[in-house]
Amino acid sequence: MPTAVEVQVNPGESIQQAIDGGALSIRLSEGVYPGGVALPDSARLIGAGAGKTVIVPGARAESAVPPLHDAPDAVDHGVVVHAASDVVVEGLTLRGFSGAGVYAHTVSGLRLVDVESDANRVWGLYFRESTGLTARGCRAAGSQYGGIALAFCAAADAEIADCETTGNAFGVFVDNSSRARIQRVRAHGNAAGILLLHQTYPGEPEGGVTDCLVADCDLTGNTLAAGGDDPDAPGAAGPPMSGVGLAMIGVQRVAVIGNRITGNHPGGPSVMPAALVVASSADWGGSASADNTIEWNTVTGNSPADALIDPEGQRVVNNVIGEGT
Questions:
Q1: I need a labelling partner for 280 at 20 to 30 A (CA). Which of 56, 64, 68, 253 fits?
Q2: pLDDT tens, 159-210?
């Protein structure tokens, strides 16, 4: 029977073997551990800290999780959580996987604390069709699509707080997901610091982005070029995008409060000609952006423009947008 008694795993020992042996609470020593991990209900995987405990590719963890979106077949992942609940991952780095650093699908209750995704090929920390999600004090760098991403989480009840993203196509990506709180995030060196998007996709669930908060974030220096036809480029097969601090496309009831969006400049072509963009996605099967509040933000020193906001249905007050406004 599974046991909640804590098991210590050291370098040279198998994390997955300890899990398969019934352990639910696993503490990892400092060091490098080859091989992905699949976690069951109520599992606790606790490392010595990001950058100290490092999981790298090795033996692939067996899981019935569906194929990863936008990834080739047979990619491997650092940590997989599928059809599980009440899982905690804390204090470790996931590095160099061909799929995602963390891939969570149909999960209820997943908490990531001090988890680093470093150079995982497709996604960093990826949550899909899940609820009750937390990423706190995490870092995500160098993934082709989202560093931290919510995909088709209709009631995400998600907290993304005190995190850093860099070198991804989208630092934080809220894709057809609702009820997310994004606070005190530092996003720099991405193509888009934060992207909230409602768009329909053939064969995918119904979407929408509603009832979210973006507050007290620093979205600066996002200059990476993404999109286009190169399959190895960031954001491959998507529209060209660069120089975006925050984009809200087809969203409703989103509050954007007290953020600093500065120094974002395109490093290549971009379909979004401003650092702060609020626009409709109705032409792509989404919806108009409406009933959103944008207040107490500083949006300055960006090019080619600081802000492009669809004025219909938005409350835009008490901001500093552009020089002297």
A1: 68
A2: 999 999 999 999 999 999 999 999 999 999 999 999 999 998 888 888 899 9
- What percentage of the chain exceeds 70 in pLDDT? 98
Mean pLDDT within 103-113: 98
Domain ranges for the chain: 29-321
Q: What is the pTM of this model?
A: 0.97
DSSP string, 155-167: T--EEEES-EEES
Q: Regarding beta strands 79-82 and 31-34, do their DSSP bridges make them parallel or antiparallel, or are they unpaired?
A: unpaired
Helix (H, G, I), strand (E, B) or coil at 324: coil
b/e map 4-15, b = 16+ CB within 10 Å: eeebebeeeebb
Average pLDDT over residues 298-302: 98
Model confidence at 256: pLDDT above 50:
yes
Sign of the CA dihedral with 66 first, then 68, 73, and 78 last: negative
Q: Quickly name the fold that domain 29-321 has.
A: Pectate Lyase C-like (2.160.20)
Cα torsion 42, 47, 51, 57: sign? negative
Tally of residues, the chain? 325
150: left (phi over 0), alpha (psi -120 to 50) or beta: beta
